[in-house]
């Protein structure tokens, strides 16, 4: 999660326009590597770190059938951090 934050922070500093596009991201950061099923059109429109984080949390919870401890371990964050972010995004 921290690595993704660093990539997005760097991209926001080095972006070519008002939004972060796919070209602003490193090549190794593909949709498959990120585990994100959105279409490439999000890159043309820009990318919201909060939406991406929310999607990753939802996918981790789905993968672990709602088990917060396992989802947190999967995301490499603590369970309290997961709960805080779930509350932040209105997830149950």
Describe the model:
- There is one protein chain.
- The protein contains 6 helices and no strands.
- With 92 residues, it is mainly alpha-helical.
- It is elongated.
- Helix 4 (49-63) crosses helix 5 and helix 5 packs across helix 6.
- It has helices spanning 2-14, 31-34, 41-45, 49-63, 68-75, 79-88.
- Residues 37-41 have low confidence and may be disordered.
List the helices and strands and how they pair.
Blueprint: H1 2-14, H2 31-34, H3 41-45, H4 49-63, H5 68-75, H6 79-88
Helix pairs in contact: 4-5, 5-6
Quick summary of this structure?
The chain has 92 residues and is an all-alpha fold.
| Count, helices | 6
Give me the Rg, rounded. 14 Å
Query: Gap between N and C termini, in Å?
Result: 20 Å
The biggest sheet amounts to: none
Q: What share of the residues lie within helices?
A: 55-70%
General form? elongated
- Mean pLDDT over all positions: 80
* Class from helix and strand fractions: mainly alpha
How do the helices and strands follow one another from N- to C-terminus? HHHHHH
Tally the beta strands. Answer: 0
In terms of DSSP E residues, the strand content is under 5%
Q: Would you identify the regions where 5 or more consecutive residues have pLDDT less than 50? A: 37-41
Jot down its keywords:
elongated; mainly alpha; 6 helices; 92 residues
């Amino acid at each position: 999660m921290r690595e993704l934050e660093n990539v997005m922070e760097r991209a926001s500093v080095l972006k070519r326009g008002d939004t972060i596009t796919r070209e602003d991201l490193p090549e190794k950061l593909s949709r498959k590597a990120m585990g994100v099923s959105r279409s490439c059109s999000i890159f043309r429109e820009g990318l919201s770190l909060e939406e991406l984080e929310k999607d990753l949390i939802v996918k981790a919870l789905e993968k672990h059938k709602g088990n917060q401890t396992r989802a947190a371990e999967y995301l490499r964050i603590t369970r309290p951090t997961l709960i805080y972010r779930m509350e932040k995004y209105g997830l149950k």
